[in-house]
Specification:
Distance between the termini: 28 Å
Largest sheet: 3 strands, mixed
Strand order of the largest sheet: 2-1-3
Number of strands: 3
Structural class: mainly alpha
Helix content: 55-70%
Radius of gyration: 23 Å
CATH topology: Hydantoin permease
Shape: globular
CATH class: Mainly Alpha
Strand content: under 5%
Number of domains: 1
CATH superfamily: Hydantoin permease
Number of helices: 25
Length: 506
């Protein structure tokens, strides 16, 4: 029986299979169902715009700027950002292929490798990291709010816990908006990214003027050389990789709408370039602060407060808008959906947003951002190690174990081939544990510390290889003949028509 149709490399359910799958209400809803053919409507420009909007954010600025505080010069810092972005783009594109081909979101993709119930494990791992970023952006926004109030009402700065009060108010604002869903951000998202770009260019112009020209602004020499440089470079590259490691997992949430594999590939290739360009601005401005103030100010709010009141007001508002936009648009969706998925009948998206906010507080963003080393090596390095095995398992499953052949209908069946042992794929659990072993050895055994500092890299390879080995005899694999039995070949003509249509994904 044909349950799915492949058309120009994109697989969709047949109408009958779709109706049958929708009866499993604990596995199917409008957020989790696979896309229909008309919903595959995103072209390359849509993906390029998506990445530009995500790259232009305060955490990116701080990530790049902080390289100067480690002792790198400007071109070494830009190179580090570019190399890390290119490295992480590889798993992003490999995982994005699955989302485009089968039109499913990340939680459903996770069922393929962890099982219908085990999928909660990678979903919640992604949720924890999303909550952490929610807290980090809220801390940036809270600092900006505190800077504005302190400048307008000077007595405010003399009040002991003024920063934490401002952070608490901003946190409440973020949670309140997030409870209404990503649609609540509306036109603000389209306004915030270009506004942040203009603000960054304004800071760049200030840096050139304050430092006495481009040459002096970029003249700050590297203070680390030889072996010391490489000791900082390797974990810094991994930190940049970890910065986008979350997207390497849940990129199917976006790539599922691509009109073709070519479109999502071309659109996403802009990411390393955008990261390098925006990072150069942050790095140049931070180099200027080293020349002007004698200290590298990698947190933009610390720099903004040194300007006149009108600049503090405008700059603070830009940081606030950016923080709200990326929080509601990017950092709430994955954790809120993960919490909602745990108990669909009791936890709504709004409830998931509240839980995300509370978890963000437990992540202590004030500590994460206390120093750049804590931000990169502790925060980014640790969660990169946490997520690396999931990336390796996802890639190995789709490309090596399945060889791109899936039974889409069975992903929505409680007793299907992807239900494994009561909804849990124990082979995936085993590969996950094996993937964490090398970094933990590096953490506990000092001579092999490089295994920990490069935790994402080693864990993704080890977990992927272990999973491919464990799954070599799995009955869930589909042969080419079996795939042809369940898959019909669609007419290419409608696909060409869809490619020119403007359809908004459900």
């Amino acid at each position: 029986m044909k349950t799915q149709v492949e058309q120009d490399g994109i697989v969709t359910l047949t109408p009958d299979a779709s109706r049958a799958a929708s009866a499993n209400t604990d596995l199917w809803n409008d957020d989790l169902r696979p896309c229909t053919r008309p919903e595959h409507s995103w072209g390359a420009s849509r993906f390029a715009s998506l990445w530009i909007g995500m790259c232009l954010c305060i955490p990116t600025y701080s990530l790049a700027s902080g390289m100067i505080t480690l002792g790198m010069n400007w071109w070494e810092s830009v190179l580090t950002i570019f190399v890390g972005s290119c490295v992480v783009l590889v798993p992003i594109l490999l995982v994005a292929h699955a989302g485009t081909r089968y039109g499913f979101p990340y939680p459903v993709f996770a069922r393929l490798w962890f099982g219908t119930r085990g999928a909660h494990v990678p979903a919640l791992a992604r949720a924890v990291i999303g909550a952490g970023w929610f807290g980090i952006n809220s801390w940036f926004g809270g600092q900006a709010l505190d800077a504005i109030v302190s400048r307008v009402l000077p007595p405010w700065a003399a009040f002991g816990p003024h920063v934490f009060i401002a952070f608490g108010l901003f946190w409440l604002l973020n949670v309140g908006i997030a409870m209404r869903g990503p649609q609540a951000i509306g036109r603000l998202a389209a306004f915030a990214a270009p506004t942040l770009a203009v603000a960054a260019l304004a800071l760049f112009a200030w840096g050139i003027t304050a430092a006495g020209g481009m040459g002096p602004m970029l003249a700050a020499p590297a203070t680390i050389h030889g072996a010391e440089f490489w000791e900082k470079f390797f974990p810094s590259v991994i930190g940049v990789v970890a910065f986008w490691a979350t997207l390497a997992l849940n990129i199917p949430d976006y790539s599922r709408y691509a009109v073709s594999q070519r479109a999502q590939l071309r659109g996403q290739l802009v990411m390393p370039v955008v990261m390098a360009v925006f990072s150069f601005i942050g790095i140049a401005v931070t180099s200027a602060t080293l020349a002007v103030y004698g200290k590298a100010l990698w947190n933009p709010v610390e720099l903004i407060v040194k300007f006149p009141t009108i600049v503090v007001l405008i700059g603070g508002i830009v940081v606030i808008l950016s923080s709200i936009t990326i929080n509601v648009g990017a950092n709430v969706m994955a954790p809120a959906r993960a919490f909602e998925n745990l108990w669909p009948s009791r936890i709504t998206f709004a409830g998931g947003a509240i839980l995300t906010g509370l978890l963000a507080l437990l992540m202590q963003p004030w500590y994460v951002l206390s120093t750049f080393a804590t931000y990169v090596f502790t925060w980014l390095g640790t969660y990169g190690t946490l997520l690396g095995p999931f990336d390796g398992i996802a890639i190995a499953d789709y490309w090596l174990v399945r060889e791109l052949r899936l039974d889409l209908f069975q992903l929505y069946s409680r007793s299907g081939r992807y239900d494994y042992a009561g909804g849990w794929n124990l082979r995936a659990i085993g590969a996950l544990i094996v993937g964490w072993i090398p970094p933990l050895i590096g953490l506990w055994f000092a001579p092999l510390h490089f295994l920990w500092s490069g935790g994402w890299f080693f864990s993704i390879i080890v977990a992927g290889a272990a999973y491919a080995w464990f799954m070599r005899t799995s009955p869930s694999r589909i042969s080419e003949a079996a795939y042809e039995t369940i898959t019909g070949i669609g007419d290419a003509a409608p696909a060409r028509a869809v490619a020119t249509a403007e359809v908004t994904p459900a």
